[in-house]
Amino acid sequence: MKPAILIVSPTLADANTGNWRTAQRWARFLAREFRVRIASAWDGTPCDALIALHARRSAAAIAAFAATGRPVALVLTGTDLYRDIRVDADAQRSLVLAQCLVVLQSQGLDELPPELRAHARVIEQSARPLPPLAPRRRSFDLLLVGHLRPEKDPLTAVRALARLDDAAAQCLRLIQVGDTLDAGLAERMRDAARADARIELRGALPHARTRALIRHGRVLLLPSRIEGGANVLIEAVTAGVPVLASRIGGSIGLLGDDYAGLFPVGDDAALAALIRRCRDEPVFLERLRAHCRRRAQRFTPEREGAAVLGLAHNLLPAEHAREAPAPTSRNPRR
Question: What span, in angstroms and rounded, lies between the C-alpha atoms of 128 and 212?
Fold first, then answer.
């Protein structure tokens, strides 16, 4: 029988978050060689290894499973790396209990305590490459994709749009996609949309519709204050859509420090200037697009899948070796 792996994700399909997307994708990769289940907690059902997303929110599952002596891998999210592991005792304990730590972009390694970096590896996420779709001719569409919560800082995008009030700016359209996780922030976004007809709030949409919107867009905006390695950034880049992102570790790690589409966190004036250049300077927009095409080669499902299987084999070398088929003359062991 194949070894069994449980993936613990603090959010499941109904939440449609980045954590769920990661868990779902990893389960698909692992199912080639393992029995895999996704749950929001560990209920005591026997399994051979645990892969947990989120140090703080999955802390109870990590502690209980580690007590059995079975191996744990911890995938660190943005709020883990850039907030919780600095101040939260449960998150800090999860770091110690895990045999392997995973960060989703190379900058994440720098946030770990030095003594734990030897147990960490980088696994960059992926998305199926898709060609961009024809953009809307009557507008220059800016996509803002993410559930409404302070970490995503959507109001920086709203303030940037407000700075663009020249005649040509009337072609701009800011399309926000995502559910409401912060009521106060959602109300401010509704106020902004009432005041500026260029803002469209689409709310939560199915993943396929969201990705189609991105593919029709001119630019994806990612003004986040915290990101571990945004799925949506990778979905844009692998669809040929350039990104304007805040200069934070999670985005630098994916796009590179030399990317010309980065701006300081919360700096709406800098974001407005980049939007203006994208709209008015085709050469600049193509420069961003070309950079993103080069980075997209890192974000293939084949590459991520191999890395995820490698993680599992590293957690369960002995168990998996016992399940491996005996070599034959047609498939000799080398």
Answer: 13
Please tell me whether residues 308 and 285 are part of one structural domain.
Answer: no
Query: Per the structure block, which two tokens stand in for 263?
Result: 């701006």
Instruction: Identify whether 282 is part of a domain.
Output: yes
Residue 333: which pLDDT band, with cuts at 50, 70 and 90? very low
2: left (phi over 0), alpha (psi -120 to 50) or beta: beta
Residue 1 is predicted with a pLDDT of 87
**CATH number of the domain where residue 78 is located:** 3.40.50.2000
216/29 Cα distance (integer angstroms): 29
Compute CA 312 distance to the chain's CA centroid, rounded to the nearest angstrom: 20
Return the exposure string of 51-76: e unless at least 16 CB atoms fall within 10 Å of the residue's CB, then b: bbbbbbbbbebbeebbeeebbbbbbb
**Tokens 């204050």 map to which residue?**
225
Q: Is 165 helix (H, G, I), strand (E, B) or coil?
A: coil
Burial (CB < 10 A; 0-12, 13-18, 19+), residue 99, is: middle
Strand-pair category, 172-177 with 199-203: parallel
Q: Is residue 333 part of a domain?
A: no
Place of tokens 């109001």: 155
Residue 134 lies in a domain: no
pTM recorded for the entire structure: 0.90
Model confidence over 44-55: pLDDT tens digits?
999 999 999 999
Please, what's the b/e burial string for 17-36 (b: 16 or more CB within 10 A of its CB; e: otherwise)?
bbbbbbbebbbebbeebbeb
What's the domain range around 117?
Answer: 4-126+300-323
Residue 6: C-alpha distances to residues 37, 200, 289 (Å): 5, 39, 38
